[in-house]
Write a structure and sequence with these properties.
With about 290 residues, the chain is mainly α. The protein has one domain. It is about 80% helix and about 0% strand. Helix 5 packs antiparallel against helix 7. The radius of gyration is 19 Å and the shape is globular. The relative contact order is 0.22.
Length: about 290
């Protein structure tokens, strides 16, 4: 349970920092690349295992780290484009609704059973995510703008499902720190290649504030992944319940943080979503 709480807290901290990006005019892509490098350095600092390249390549989870590194930065970039084209609410809903992907795979791959009460709780949680996250007008007005919300949905769901699969079959408990560190380095590598490509095309303007934003994001980002994998390793709940509790709690905490620290207004629709989310959490953990 402590790992679940820590993962939720660090994800809420990420929300606060990313929220500040817009206020200080920080380029998300540049900050994200710096953040992944900082997260890699943080992982090195806390690492108990050796970081011999030949040994790392031989681990079962190494290929998964490469894939996750690509999915991490691709999903974030798709989220940014979704926020710009369709609105922040669409990006948030697409990301959190993706919980249905690891839930489905949990039933298929791990033979997890879902009782009637939990199924109702999960459905109510999905509805609650929509109502709680809907803070602005955001619509998919054109068919070609549907691509990015779909990519966010698939990317976020793939991350959760992949982490569960790798933790279950390939990542030993004593290698979680190493796995997290290598995954962040892979994400950083993909980001550097993307930055180089955009720089050559003249689409990137560098700024010191972007580096500072990335540094601030790196520390909580590392621990958000580390404790997420530790949470999965603890097996306190089935995948369906765990991912539902995790995602809906992040939505609730982020909402309350927005109200308390960013003076965001809460509508009747948001209040209904919060109440529904709390009831869904009760049913899922029943």
């Amino acid at each position: 349970m402590i790992y679940l709480l820590l993962s939720i807290v660090f994800n809420a901290v990420l929300f606060v920092i990313i929220k500040l990006f817009a206020r200080f005019n920080i380029d998300a892509l540049q900050a994200l690349v710096v953040n992944y490098f900082v997260a890699f350095l943080v992982g090195l600092f806390f690492l108990d295992n050796s970081l011999a390249p030949k040994e790392i390549i031989s681990h079962d989870w190494f290929k998964g780290s490469i894939v996750l590194g690509f999915v991490f930065i691709s999903t974030f970039y798709a989220t940014t484009l979704t926020s710009q084209r369709n609105g922040l609410s669409v990006a948030s809903v697409a990301s959190k609704m993706s919980v249905i992907i690891p839930i489905t795979l949990g039933v298929i791959l791990y033979n997890e059973s879902l009782g009637f009460v939990k199924i109702i709780g999960i459905l109510l949680a999905l509805i609650a995510v929509y109502f709680t996250s809907k803070k602005e007008t955001g619509e998919v007005q054109q068919a070609n703008n549907l691509l990015f919300p779909v990519l966010v949905f698939l990317g976020a769901g793939t991350i959760d499902a992949s982490l569960k699969y790798l933790q279950t079959y390939h990542v030993p408990a004593n290698q979680i720190g190493l796995f997290s560190t290598v995954t962040f380095f892979c994400a950083f590598s993909v980001g550097v290649l993307t930055i180089l490509f955009l720089t050559i095309r003249g689409q990137i303007k560098f700024s010191g504030r972007n580096i500072l934003g990335g540094i601030a994001l790196g520390l909580p980002n590392y621990f958000s992944l580390y404790y997420l994998v530790k949470m999965l390793e603890a097996k306190a709940f089935q995948s369906a319940a765990l991912f539902t509790i995790h995602n809906i709690s992040i939505v609730l905490v982020s909402t309350f943080v927005g109200i308390l620290f960013f003076k965001e207004k809460i509508s009747l629709r948001n209040a209904f979503g919060i109440g529904l989310a709390l009831f869904a959490l009760y049913l899922v953990t029943y």
